[in-house]
Design goal:
Length: 731
């Protein structure tokens, strides 16, 4: 599928250069018009914005190869949000700003606006993680107090960088110092609710209501604001005589952290996905679903990392990795973890609530080899806007998707009677799968690379009930707690890092699969996740569309296809790499942000070969520049093309695009600016070379000016880079 993009202008009018743009969509195509206002009326044959220029030539430029070489021979990367001419953005909140009795957290991700009236509402924000090096470098400057980083790093260096702080005596000064650092890091994770409105000048601003609050990684530890639990895992949390660790809190849960993407319900609540919880707690569990001892994930600190922060507080690992529901309008709501939705590395949730039908909730496990899941309620939806729909999440079933290479698929339940029929190593790219440890007294997992060993595993265990311990309810809870590994045992398809799931008005589910490369956690099904030429290990990612049989949310069969493919245009890609969060506008078109790893941003590519061999796709991602926002029409003559709308600041990921109800504002979160190089000192920059390709495959050299580190959003020399939420709108 060809792609398209073009010129640019910076928020404050700083021009970066101009390249010729080919023809825009024909009058027969139909595009939705978010951001359309009196300044530019929507017409059937034009976009409501002029696509910006990015570093790579695209098919949508409409330029001959020689013209591409000239126009793209130089490029300047800017430490700002680059938006089309006629657009601007408001910074609504940034790390360290006051929120209720706490502060705006770090590395904001999903953003949701629950509107309470025209031009006003509650903005709910996820705070995923802290970028250890940059967070430590800028903490005192932003927060206004110091922490004992150097002292604790010295102690960690003396013990291989790791400290089991939970085992230290309470009168040990080192334990108190670790608690101080860990507490501040966990405060900067979780969720936040802030009230906002659009003023007479069109700007979005905070209103500081009584509902403004933070739900942090330590909510409940000192303030009694515990999170609640529903579903079968509560039976595991509350049982006595656990095989593993006991936190003595029963169903109560301290805090939420690693909050990545999410979703907003028709009834006005917001879901937050706990993703990479393994950075803070032991992910693996015992056969009864109880947690490993906190010592399994010790406190770690070095120049670039501050992790294992739950260790010192003795948090139970099986209570993290869930979906958290919050009502932003209720100032006393600090979150509920609905365990029927499963515990894994959640990334987002797609909600389908149709009157008279069962509620369906879709979510993906963002790891290499992770699965796509669907929860189906036992009860039916009445009025989709009724808050009573939250009760439907207390009773139902969790399913995993089995994709077939022919575009069909089915849903497999994760329950006691499901046969053990594991994914085989030969089926996945990378040739490795993880399964629950056959020594059920030891718990945890084992990695398998031999089909024969997996077939022997299958002969040892008949159903999922054979893998878990306890009463039937406790076994069901344990399966949900161990969902990813139980899903592998059940033969659910391993996929390519499903980072977002969102449901269109027509019932279609869109899934962003970010990367098809294998890794230490596994790899995707080699027959399903293929590139434009049928190749496996396809790094650049896809957007899939899934349609349930009979348009029934509770259907057990589905059809799927590929809506968009990342990669270079000459190879069949659309010009972006690693699609992540998705928003669907009112006309069913997609707004997508990318998630290239920070280490790959603008990485020099002076040659496309090394030692006579072509570079891997992972090593070519520097060609794509910074992470960005794209518009992808799903219908009309230009369906399947991609139009670049914005580029993010240095070393950041733009997350959580969310359109206001009137489609005139796109809310977004700028996550981890300056993550790799920290503060940009003295506006430092360097020139780098890139072996680019024209859209017909001719190689040419581009010289690119790249800032070193970040100063956004202050944008002045030596300003600390700060994660922040913005509202993008027409001027």
């Amino acid at each position: 599928m060809p792609l398209k993009r073009r010129n640019f202008l910076l928020f404050l009018g700083a021009s970066l250069g101009t390249a010729a743009l080919g023809s825009l969509p024909s009058p027969n195509s139909r595009f939705s018009m978010p951001f359309a206002g009196s300044a530019q009326a929507a017409t059937g044959g034009t976009l409501s914005f002029q696509p910006i220029k990015t570093p790579m030539p695209l098919n949508i430029d409409g330029m001959a190869p020689d013209a591409q070489k000239q126009a793209y021979s130089t490029f300047e990367v800017v430490d700002d949000i680059v938006v089309p001419e006629g657009f601007t953005y408001d910074v609504i909140g940034a790390w360290g700003d006051r929120v209720g009795d706490s502060r705006f957290g770090y590395n904001n991700d999903y953003v949701s606006l629950v509107e309470t009236g025209p031009n006003q509402g509650y903005l709910t924000i996820n705070f995923e993680y802290i970028s250890g090096g940059t967070w430590m470098q800028t903490y005192e400057q932003v927060i206004g107090k110091s922490l004992p980083f150097d002292t604790v790093k010295a102690a960690a260096n003396a013990s291989d960088g790791k400290i089991n702080a939970f085992a230290l005596s309470d009168d040990n000064p080192l334990k108190a110092q670790i608690q101080e650092i860990a507490k501040e890091g966990l405060i900067d994770q979780g969720m936040g609710v802030i009230s906002v409105r659009r003023n007479a000048q069109g700007q979005w601003e905070r209103t500081y209501s009584a509902a403004d609050r933070r739900i942090t990684g330590i909510s409940g530890l000192e303030d009694g604001r515990y999170l609640k639990t529903t579903g079968p895992a509560a039976a595991v949390f509350g049982k006595t005589n656990k095989m593993g660790y006991e936190d003595n809190l029963g169903e109560k849960i301290i805090g939420t952290f690693q909050n990545c993407a999410g979703g907003t319900t028709p009834w006005g609540t917001v879901f937050s996905a706990e993703e990479n919880v393994q950075d803070q707690i032991p992910e693996h569990v015992m056969a009864d679903g109880s947690a490993f001892d906190p010592s399994a994930t010790p406190f770690v600190i070095d120049d670039g990392t501050v992790d294992g922060r739950a260790n010192v507080f003795g948090l139970a690992g099986n209570k993290y990795g869930w979906m958290v529901e919050v009502d932003p309008a209720n100032p006393n709501d600090y979150g509920t973890k609905h365990t029927w939705l499963g515990r894994y590395r959640h990334e987002a949730v797609g909600i389908r609530a149709v009157s008279g039908k069962k509620l369906a909730m879709y979510s993906g496990c963002d790891r290499r080899g992770g699965h796509l899941y669907k929860f189906v309620s036992n009860g039916t939806v009445g009025r989709p806007q009724a808050k009573a729909n939250s009760r439907l999440l207390e009773d139902g079933m969790l399913y995993g998707a089995k994709f077939n290479a022919d575009g069909t698929g089915r849903w497999i339940p994760l329950t006691l009677t499901t046969p053990v029929d594991p994914v085989l190593p030969s089926q996945v790219d990378g040739g490795m799968v993880t399964l629950p440890n056959p020594d059920r007294n030891a718990g945890g997992i084992v990695k398998y690379t031999s089909d024969g060993e997996v077939m022997a595993y299958k002969r040892q265990f008949n159903t999922l009930a054979d893998l878990y311990r306890g009463t039937d309810t406790e076994k069901q809870g344990a399966i949900l707690i161990d969902a990813h590994f139980a899903a592998n045992a059940a033969g659910i398809t391993c996929t390519a890092r499903p980072e977002d799931t969102i449901v269109d008005q027509d019932g279609s589910l869109y899934i962003a699969f970010t990367s098809g490369s294998p890794g230490g956690d596994g790899g995707p099904d080699a027959a399903v996740f293929t590139g434009p030429e049928g190749e496996s290990s396809y790094e650049y990612g896809w957007i899939f569309r899934l349609q349930e049989s009979g348009d029934d949310p509770a259907a057990m069969m589905f059809m799927w296809d590929k809506t968009a493919v990342g990669g270079e245009p000459v190879d069949g890609g659309l010009g972006f790499a690693n699609p992540d969060n998705i928003e669907v506008d009112r006309d069913g078109h997609l707004w997508m942000v990318t998630d290239m790893s920070t280490s790959s941003h603008n990485k020099a590519v002076p040659s496309r070969t090394k030692d006579g061999k072509p570079l891997s796709q992972g090593n070519l991602r520097g060609l794509f520049g910074n992470n960005s926002i794209w518009f992808i029409p799903t219908s009309g003559e230009k369906a399947g093309q991609a139009f670049p709308f914005a580029i993010g600041p240095m070393e950041c990921e733009i997350c959580g695009p969310y359109l206001s109800r009137d489609q005139e504002t796109l809310f977004a979160a700028v996550q981890h600016p300056g993550e790799r190089n920290g503060i940009r000192q003295g506006m430092a920059a360097e020139m780098r070379n890139y072996a680019m390709q024209t859209t017909d495959g001719q190689v040419f050299m581009q010289e690119r000016k790249v800032p070193i580190g970040g100063n956004w959003p202050g944008k002045q020399a030596n300003n600390p880079p700060k994660p922040a939420v913005v509202a993008i709108r027409r001027v």
